[in-house]
Design goal:
Layout lengths: L11 E4 L6 H17 L5 E5 L4 E4 L16 E3 L6 E4 L3 E7 L9 H17 L6 E3 L2 E7 L13 E12 L2 E9 L19 E2 L11 H11 L6
Parallel strand pairs: 1-2, 3-4, 9-11
Antiparallel strand pairs: 2-6, 3-5, 6-10, 7-8, 8-9, 9-10
Helix pairs in contact: 2-3
Length: 224
């Protein structure tokens, strides 16, 4: 007998107030994805922070891990390269049925990018996406331009997802007030020449609660 077709139900928002170990988060995501697939659990967006660590995506180049002994390094099995997670950074794990949203991975990633851009706009920050550079960036006219004269741009959000039978997990991270020196141990997402920034680094006194509220207001993921 064929299983009943899945339908989009109410989206659950989960917020963890204490840092969550990566292994714990991965196990919870795996369980939720299994539940979505077998119809025993609904979709969820999980807002959390991690202890300081580096994660390696499926395209990670070991040469980009500049300081392998600085923090624990986890193999994430998501798309992308090396990234940093730690306190002061909002991690957003999106466990969503992409199969019911058109089965278009590129469009789904663009939706995540647009979500970040819309949330940042709530604070007057103009986020942009660039061909060949994953994530969301902000232009820094206050910093010297690159050697070729192009404006300096700093990364404020990273995106990396994984799909299992068209259900997504992992997701994105937005820098609110992390220790930006912690990014020095890697080449973030394999991109050189540009830097990393945060909302507080941009001079905005934004709290994690402020960002969470903006993410909920601008979320593109609705039932139906």
């Amino acid at each position: 007998m064929n299983a009943a077709p899945r339908a989009i139900a109410a989206l659950e928002w989960i917020t963890s107030t204490a840092p969550v170990a990566y292994a714990t988060a991965l196990a919870e995501m795996e369980a939720r994805v299994a539940g979505i697939l077998d119809g025993t659990a609904g979709e969820a967006v999980w807002l959390l922070e991690h202890p300081p660590m580096y994660t390696a995506g499926t395209s990670a180049n070991v040469a980009d891990l500049r300081d392998p002994d600085r923090f624990p390094v986890h193999q994430a099995r998501r798309g992308g390269q090396y990234t940093y997670h730690g306190p002061g950074q909002r991690v957003v794990y999106a466990m969503l049925d992409v199969g019911l949203r058109g089965r278009d991975v590129r469009a789904f990633v663009q939706t995540l990018e647009g979500w970040v851009i819309d949330a940042l706009a709530e604070f007057g920050v103009r986020g942009v996406v660039r061909d060949g550079r994953v994530g969301v960036w902000v232009t820094r006219p206050d910093k010297p331009p690159l050697p070729d004269g192009t404006p300096r741009e700093d990364k404020i959000a990273a995106i990396g997802i994984r799909l299992r039978r068209w259900v997504s997990f992992h997701g994105l991270s937005i820098n609110v007030e992390p220790d930006l020196s912690h990014f020095d141990g890697i080449v973030p997402c394999g991109i050189t020449g540009h830097g990393v920034t945060s909302l507080v680094d941009l001079g905005l006194p934004v709290t994690m609660d402020d960002l969470d509220a903006a993410l909920k207001r601008t979320s593109p993921f609705r039932p139906g």
